[in-house]
Records
---
Amino acid sequence: MDGSHVPPGTGCPVMHGGNTGMDNAVTKWWPDALNLDILHQHDTRTNPMDADYDHREAVKALEHAAVKADVHALMRDSQDWWPADWGHYGGLMIRLAWHAAGSYRMGDGRGGAGSGNIRFAPLNSWPDNASLDKARRLLWPAKKKYGNALSWADLIILSGNIAYESMGLKTFGFGFGRQDIWGPEKDVYWGSENEWLAPSEKRYGDLETPSTMENPLAAVHMGLIYVNPEGVNGNPDPARTALHVRETFARMAMNDEETAALTCGGHTVGKAHGGGAHDQIGAEPEGCPVHAQGLGWSNPGHGGKATNAFTSGIEGAWTKEPTKWDMGYFDYLFDYEWELTKSAAGANQWQPVNMPENEMPVDATDLSKHVKPMMTDADMAMKVDPIYNEICQRFRADPEYFADAFGRAWFKLTHRDMGPRANYLGPDVPAEDLIWQDPIPAGSTSYDVDAVKAKIAETGLSASDMIATAWDSARTFRGSDKRGGANGARIRLAPQKDWAGNEPERLATVLGALEPIAANSGASIADVIVLAGNVGLEHSIKAAGFDVAVPFTAGRGDATDAQTDADSFSVLEPLADGFRNWQKETYAVSPEAMMLDRAQLLGLTAAEMTVLVGGMRVLGANHGGSSHGVFTDRPGTLSTDFFVNLTDMALSWSPAEDGTYTLNDRATGDVKFTATSADLVFGSNSILRGYAEVYAQDDNAEKFVRDFVAAWTKVMMNDRFDLLS
C-alpha cells in the first residue's frame, strides 16, 4: 500500500496496540465493569492441539526412559552461547523447576508448575526469573524431539528432578501428566503494585507482622516467588527475614521442616549470579526488541563465561562442591562466622570470615581459581532462627534423614498442584499416599442406585436442602490445584462441617437422614449426598413440567479424619458463594467479583455460571433461606422465572438502604422481589444480560433445564479423578 488511500490526517490505518490491548479494553473506560475474561481463557480457540487430542493417552505412550536419558545428557552438554557453571546445568535447571513450582500459593491454589505458565507473561519476565529463559531454550531440543506427549510443564519439572539425580540425590519420585496452557493466566492476582520489587509495605497490613500479608498472596514483593534474598525490603536482618520466610513458605503449603529442607537442599548445589553491573543488563523477555526473539536480560559483559552470568545480582556458591549433593551447606553455614558484604552488582550478601582459600569453591569458569562462597539473608535465617537452627542441626547429624526430608519436600513443591495421585503418570510415581494429596478410598459401584434414590425420597428432606447440601459438598473444588469437591464427603468432617457457609445445623440434619441410607445400602455417603441433590433437582424439574434425568456416576469414596489435613483444608472455606447468594461478611471485593472467582475455580464458563445462578435462585437454594434473587412465585420449580422477571421492563429496580435492591412494579410501586448485586449483575453486565435474555425467551424453558442439568453435573463430577484410566 502506498498510502494514497489513507484519509488525510489519519496516519497509519492499522489499529495500533491490537484490538485486544488494554487501551481498548472495556475496563479502561469503565473500571468498575465486571471483567469476565477469566471465564473465557484457555478454550478451544487458543489450543493448537487437534480436537480429538488426548494428552493423557499421549503421555502414557511417551518413551519415559529415553526422555530421562536425554535430559541427563543435557546436564553436562555445555553450550557456548550460555555455558554451564562448572560444566553442569544442574543448578540452572533446579532453579527453573523451583521457580515454576514456587509461584503456587495455598490460599487459592493458583500459580505453580502444573500448566507451564512460566512460559508466559508476567512470570517469564519477573525479576526473580532472570535468565530462566535460557534454561528453557536449553531444553528445547528435548521438547522438539518428544513433541506433544512431553509438555513443557512436565519437562521443566523433570529437568529439576534429573538435575538432582545427576548430582547424587535419590529423588522421591516424579509424575508426568501436566498439561500446558497456551496463553497467560488471567485468573491469577499477583498483587496491586505497578512496579517490580515495590516496597513490601504495599502488600502487608503491618510489615512487622508477616501474617498480615494480603491474601491470597504469598511472595513478599511483586516479581518474586518467595522472600527478598537480601533481607526484608532489601535490608539484611536474618532474624526478621526468618519470620517472613516462615509465613511465605506456609502460604505455599510448607511447614518449618519442609521449609528448612527446601532452603538448605536448594542451596546445596548451584550458585547465584551477580558478577557484573546491574545497569548493564538488558530488558526482560516481554520488554526486549523483536530481534532478541524472546531472550531477555542481555548481558554485554557475559563474554561466554559462566562466571559472568547475571540473575539476582547476588554472586557466589553456597558450598565447596556446587555440582554434588552433600552436606557442605551445613558445614559452611555452621562452621564459620559470616559478615555482611556486597556483590560486584551491589547486592547485599554474607561472606565467611577467615575461610582458608583451599576450602573455598572454585570459579564457575576458571577451575584453577578459588572464590569466596556466600549466603543470602534467608540462608542466615536458618542459622539465626532457633526453630530453623534446631531442624538444621538434626539434618546435619543425619544425612539420610536430610536427603529424605528434602526429597519429600521437593516432590511436594513440584507436584502440589497436580491434585490426587490418579493424575500422575509414568514409571516413577511413588506408591505412598501422601496426606497433602487428599487421598480418598475407592468407593462402591455395586449398590442399587434406584433403591437408594427411593430411600432418599422417603426421608422427607426438602428439595432445596438436598440441593444445597450437594452443592456445598461439590463447590469446594478448585481447578487451580484440583483440591476439594464432593468426592471424599469431607463436608461431614472437620473443618468443613463447621463452616458458616455450610449452615452446620441444617447440614447435620441432612447428614443425619442420609448417613443411615449409605450405611444400609453399601453406597458411600459421598455418593448419597450427590444423589440426594439429584433427587431434589429431578423433583423440581418435574414441577416445571419436564422429564429430564440428572446423570449420576457411582463410585465416590469417603475420606476419613486421618486422611484429611484439617489445617490444609481450612483454606478451601468459602468466604462467599454467589450461587447461594451468601457472603460471610462484607468485603472490599464485590459479591459478583467473588462469584466470578468461584466460577473460574469450578471450571465454569460465563454461560454455565449464568444458568446455575438463575436455577439455584428459583430452586430456593439460597443460604439461610434468603429471599434475595428468588424472582419467582413458585420456588422449588426449575423455571426460567429468574431471567423473565430480571428482564421484564414492567418492573424497575431501586437501591435499598441496606445495600440490597428492590424490584418494583412500575405501575403500582409495589415491591415484588429483593436482590443483591450478585443478582442484578446478570441484567447490568452486557455479556451476562445476553445470556439472561436467552433463558428469558419463551422458547427456551426446556433448554434452560437441560443446560442447568449439564452445568450441575459438571460441578458434581469435577473431582472424579478416580474415573481416569
---
Amino acid sequence: MSRPRPPQAARRGRDRRAFMLAPPPGAPRVSRSRPPTTAVVGAGIAGLAAATALAERGVRVTLYEREAFLGGRVAGWPISLSDGTTATMSRGFHAFFRQYYNLRGLLRRTDPGLRRLAGLPDYPLQHSGGLRDSFRNVPRTPPWSALGFVAQSPTFTLRDLARMNPLAALPLLDVRVPDVYEQLDTVSAHDFLHSIRFPEAAHHLAFEVFSRSFFADPRQLSAAEMVLMFHIYFLGSAEGLLFDVPDEPFPQALWNPLGDYLQQHEADIRLSTAVTTVTPTQDGGFVVDATDQQRHDTVVLALDTGGLQSIVSSSPHLADTAWRQRVARLRTAPPFLVSRLWLDQPVAADRPGFLGTSGYGTLDNVSVLDRWEGDASRWATRTGGSVVELHAYALPEHSTREVEQKRLLTQLHTVYPETRTASVVDERHEWRSDCPLFPVAGYAERPTTRTSRPGLVIAGDLVRTDLPVALMERAATSGFMAANALLETWNVHGQTLWTVPRRGRSALLRILAAPGNLRSRRH
C-alpha cells in the first residue's frame, strides 16, 4: 500500500518573520529491517502529533486512548437528542487561530487546504455595562494591530491612556521565551495589569478574556503566560486576530480522518484502552500495562495532568525521584462548565457565531453553533430553532453543577433577551476540572519534553516547551517535539516546527524594553 509522504515543514502562513525550528539532519526513515516501537499514551492533540510524526517515519506506533474516541479535550462523541435525532457533543468551542502553525500542519495531513476550517468574520467582546469591542477591522500586522484595536475600542479613552504606566508596560514590547518567565512568572496576570494601570473596562474585555482561556482566574495565572498571549496575538505575529473553526463536529472534521491517516501508516490505535502503569525493562525498553502487557522500545506520555500523575504514581521505577516529584506538584485549573442548549426558536439574526462576555456573572462566552457547524446548522434548519453553547471558566471550587447550569441560562437571557421565550428542546452539560494550571511562580516546576529516563518523553499543553506557543498549539508543538526527541536518538530527521517570532518585531521597542534600560528608567 502506498502511503502519503509526510510534509517536512508546516506552512507558516502570511507572516514572513515566523520562526522555523529545523530538527537535526538524519535519515528520512528508521530501519525497515527492525523498526523501533513506541507506545503513545493519550490520543489528544499532543499524542496525535507525536504518533503522526513517528508513524510517518516508519516507527511502529501503538496509540493508547482510554476514551472511545480521538481528540482528548477537543474530542466529540455521538449523542441522541430527545426529538429522536443524533448529534455530536464535545467539551465546547475551540478557536483555531492562524498562528497555530504546527497544529494546522498536523491537520493538513488529511486536509491540505484546510477546507474543513471556516473563518469567523468577527468575535466581539461585550461588557455588561454596554461597551463592546470588535476585531473585524483591526489590521493584522503589528504594531498596527494593537494600535488599531486601541483606536477602535470604546474601552480606551484619552484619559485612560494618559493614566497608564508605560514603564510597567515595556515587557509587552519584547517578549522572548524563556526570558518572559524570568521577568514575570512571580507576578499574577491581575497584578501586572494593575501595575500598568490598564483601563478597567479594557482589562475585563481585552485581557481577562484571554487569561480565562487558560481556564484560570487572572489572580491565579502567571503574568508571563498572559504576556506571552499578548505577544502571540497582538504584537508578535502578523497573522491577525481572527480565527477559524471546524465546519463539522471535531470527529468528522479533524480526528477521524487523522485516525485513518495513522492507520495507513500502520499505527495500531487502541481506543477504550486505559494504561495503568509503565515499567522500565532491563534492556532499556518499557512494558505498558493496559488490557495486556506489551513491551515497547520507547514511550510518549501525552496525558492531562491527572492522567500523567496517575501513571507516574503507579509506576515507581519510572524516571528519577526529582522528576516524579515535579510531576506530583503539577496543578489543575479550577472547574469549568460547558452548557449546550438546543432551543426551539432561533436567536436574532445579527448574533455573532462567538461572543466573549464580561460582567455577566460566571458567563464567559456564548457560541451560536448553527452559524458555522454543519451538525448544528442542519438541526436548526430542520426545526427552526438554534443551538447555543455557554461557557463558564474558572468557577469557584465550592460551585455546584446544578446551580451554575441555572445561572448560565439566566445570563444567556440577559445577553440575548430573545431566548427568554425559547424552550429548551434538549441540553447537555460538561463539568470538568482537568486543564493544567499555570500558577504564579510555577514555570520552573513544569516538566520539559525530555525526562531523566532515556526513551521516555512527555507531551501536552502542560509541558514546558521554551517556545512562544500556547493552548492547542502548545499541545501540538510538544507532541512533535517529543517525537523529534526520539527520532534524534535513531538519527532520523524529525518534524520541522514553526512559531510566531521569538522576539519583539521592532528594534526600537526592543531597545526600550531591554532589562538594563528598564531598570535604569525605574531608578
